[in-house]
From TrEMBL, chain A:
It is found in: Cell inner membrane; Cell membrane. It comes from the Bacteria. GO terms for biological process: transmembrane transport. One of its GO terms (cellular component) is plasma membrane. The keyword Cell inner membrane applies. InterPro entries: MetI-like, MetI-like_sf. The complex is composed of two ATP-binding proteins (UgpC), two transmembrane proteins (UgpA and UgpE) and a solute-binding protein (UgpB). This is sn-glycerol-3-phosphate transport system permease protein UgpE. Part of the ABC transporter complex UgpBAEC involved in sn-glycerol-3-phosphate (G3P) import. Probably responsible for the translocation of the substrate across the membrane. PROSITE patterns: ABC_TM1 (PS50928).
From TrEMBL, chain B:
This is Multiple sugar transport system permease protein. PROSITE patterns: ABC_TM1. GO terms for biological process: transmembrane transport. Gene3D superfamilies: MetI-like (1.10.3720.10). Pfam families: BPD_transp_1. It comes from the Bacteria. It comes from Limimaricola pyoseonensis. The lineage of its organism: Bacteria, Pseudomonadati, Pseudomonadota, Alphaproteobacteria, Rhodobacterales. It is found in: Cell membrane. Keywords: Cell membrane, Membrane, Sugar transport, Transmembrane, Transmembrane helix, Transport.
Length: 278, 364
């Protein structure tokens, strides 16, 4: 059905699609231009959207000095730690709520459901005082733990486990396999796609979260890349040069963009699941 | 497997469940349920961050005083013409709800919801400080107003453009999938990358927007510090950033509309824009509601764009609720007042979450 109207539709859509991409292209292009040129003009070639004159110095400088590499590593540690933590508590609890019978099950589900309504912004002050009392600020676990309490992952896993046919576990039960073994040997292997979706949802959240790291990590050594980028963008022009700040922005975006391009289907699923349920 | 009898394998169903639920319920209780109630408790105290940090007894129970200090004032009055524009708009909403229900365009539930919202707006908009009176906190309600304005500009912007794009791209071809990827890409960036890009896009000296303005013979404006443009300067990047989710949700909704409907419509000469209006829109009502409620929840919590791009300025024009909470707590150290505002935020988000839950359940 590749008619002429279809051809025109694609052409017409290409224009807004290109415009949508312009801000990102502009960031990448500026990151590859020399700072002394950028100080004079940002529109050297094609309004600055093509990096001529070209240089890779901004990236070299980024890795030679400055804290960007360390912030990047912090983000990696926090994002991976949070992802593993959320997967661990969500798969176990999701399985229990979906497949097992036990007293007070319904009230527990309702209690978790209510938790979906509480936004991060409504609890960040008491969390701050709690973590301050414990002396936990400026640490990886302070950045990781609060997200593990958000029930969204439990509901994602619960819905997935509910959809698995009963006979699979009944066969195993007849052979005397324990519930924990069913969870580990039967259910978890089946749950890989759902775990993948949840992992990506959590990783993206961890990588991009701004408010809680801003409150909890006051020492620059514990900044995530998202927070570090915020701290250098207020005075970029004077201190580090526009090109270098843009290079930091590119480095900060690289992992999530690569993740998106490789696992596009899961990312879209994750963001719609995360978006439509909390 | 049954032969290897470890103590773990002898657990009953309920014991297994308890063991599996424990890690989550423990973190949930410690880091969400307890902080939530502690937040309410803090909001009932005169609680200075620094003083209490040094001396835990330096807080004082004050009951609802923080709420009064934040939300009320002296000599507050109500009248039906305090804000004529807004209140007429609310009355129009009330009439609209009645008409739509009478002509059976909308069901009873949505009609009551719309009417209640309109009535609430009419009442709330009528509250004002009398001639002798004044608000205890002059910044709170304007901040809430800015947040609502931000939501009111962003949500329709995202919804309408995402809907049109999704309808245009609802075909499983290579080109369409590439185009969808391009529109979705900005969604995965962090708020600080988004603000970094757009701060420089809008810069009057170095920005792409200024460069284009100059090229076309105009004189560049300072988007971020000009009262007329500052709100637009944080709304535009937000639309750019969050179009993707809405678009994907619409595409999923469009997949559920039967092809037969369009073929039947084509027989009645309903194609293109006509088909969109008479077939697509009515069948997408639920998805549209979901997307709108979702966006309201999401954008009411705006913080980064305002904090990093305009610092709430100029003249508090872009000061938003979460930023005010953040500043009250961590710059002014007034944890009690900040927590009262956080409870207010929770009530609003909670109300919309309930709506979202009810709409989401309709399908099943």
């Amino acid at each position: 059905m590749l008619s002429r109207s279809y051809f025109w539709l694609v052409t017409a859509l290409s224009i807004p699609a290109f415009l949508w991409l312009v801000p990102t292209i502009w960031m990448v292009s500026l990151s590859f231009q020399p700072n002394d040129v950028l100080a004079r003009t940002t529109s050297s070639t094609a309004l600055g959207l093509v990096p001529i004159p070209f240089t890779a110095d901004n990236y070299a400088a980024l890795f030679a000095f400055g804290q960007t590499p360390m912030w990047f590593l912090n983000s990696v540690v926090v994002a991976l730690g949070m992802t593993l933590g959320v997967l661990a508590v969500s798969t176990t609890a999701g399985f229990a709520l979906a497949r097992l019978n036990f007293p007070f099950k319904a009230p527990i589900v309702v209690l978790c459901l209510i938790g979906l309504m509480v936004p991060e912004q409504a609890v960040f002050i008491p969390l701050y005082t709690m973590f301050a009392d414990l002396g936990w600020h400026n640490s990886y676990h302070a950045l990781i733990l609060p997200r593990m309490a958000v029930p969204i992952g439990v509901f994602l896993m619960m819905q997935f486990f509910k959809a698995i046919p009963k006979d699979i576990e009944e066969a195993a039960r007849l052979e005397g396999v324990s519930w924990l073994q069913i969870f580990w040997h039967v259910m978890l292997p089946l749950a890989r796609p759902a775990m993948m979706t949840l992992a990506i949802l959590t990783f993206l959240y961890a990588w991009n979260d701004y408010l809680w790291p801003l409150v909890s990590a006051q020492q620059r050594d514990y900044f995530t890349i998202t927070l570090g980028l915020a701290s250098i963008q207020s005075n970029f022009a004077q201190s580090e040069g526009l090109g270098r700040v843009m290079a930091s922005g590119v480095i900060a975006s690289l992992p999530v963009v690569i993740l998106f391009l490789i696992f596009q289907r899961y990312v879209v699923q994750a963001m719609t699941a995360g978006g439509s349920k909390g | 497997m049954a032969s290897k009898r470890s103590p773990l394998s002898r657990l009953s169903q309920a014991q297994s469940a308890a063991l599996l639920l424990l890690p989550f319920l423990a973190t949930y209780a410690l880091f969400l349920v307890y902080p939530f109630f502690r937040g309410v408790w803090i909001s009932l105290h005169d609680w200075n961050l620094l003083e209490v940090a040094f001396n835990p007894d330096a807080k004082e129970f004050v009951g609802a005083r923080n709420y009064v200090r934040v939300m009320w004032g002296r000599g507050i009055e109500w009248s039906a013409w305090a804000r004529p524009g807004l209140q007429l708009f609310a009355l129009a909403g009330l009439v609209l709800a009645a008409i739509l229900h009478a002509t059976r365009r909308i069901g009873r539930g949505p009609a009551i919801g719309l009417a209640a919202a309109a009535l609430l707006l009419f009442v709330v908009a009528g509250i004002h400080a009398g001639e002798e009176g004044r608000w205890y906190d002059r910044r709170f309600w304007p901040t809430v107003g800015n947040t609502i304005l931000f939501v009111a500009l962003t949500v329709p912007g995202v919804t309408i453009s995402a809907l049109v794009l999704a309808a245009a791209m609802n075909r499983e071809t290579r080109a369409m999938s590439v185009l969808r990827t391009l529109f979705f890409l900005s969604q995965v960036l962090s708020v600080t990358v988004v603000t970094l890009i757009w701060q420089i896009m809008f810069s009057p000296r170095q920005g792409l927007v200024a460069n284009i303005t100059e090229l076309t013979g105009g004189s560049p404006v300072n988007w971020l510090t000009d009262e007329r443009f500052a709100m637009a300067a944080i709304v535009i990047p937000t639309i750019w950033w969050s179009l993707g989710i809405a678009m994907i949700l619409f595409l999923a909704g469009l997949q559920d509309i039967s092809r037969d409907l369009y073929e039947a419509g084509a027989l009645d000469h309903a194609t293109g824009a006509k088909a969109f209006w008479y077939i697509t829109l009515p069948n997408l009502k639920r998805t549209i509601t979901v997307v709108i409620v979702l966006q309201i929840i999401l954008h009411f919590q705006v913080f980064g764009q305002s904090h990093l791009m305009t610092q709430g300025g100029p003249n508090d024009e872009t000061q938003v609720l979460v930023r005010y909470i953040y500043q009250t707590a961590f710059r002014d150290s007034e944890l009690g007042r900040a927590s009262a505002m956080a409870v207010f935020l929770f009530l609003i988000i909670g109300a919309f979450s309930v709506v979202q839950f009810l709409v989401g359940r309709e399908k099943d």
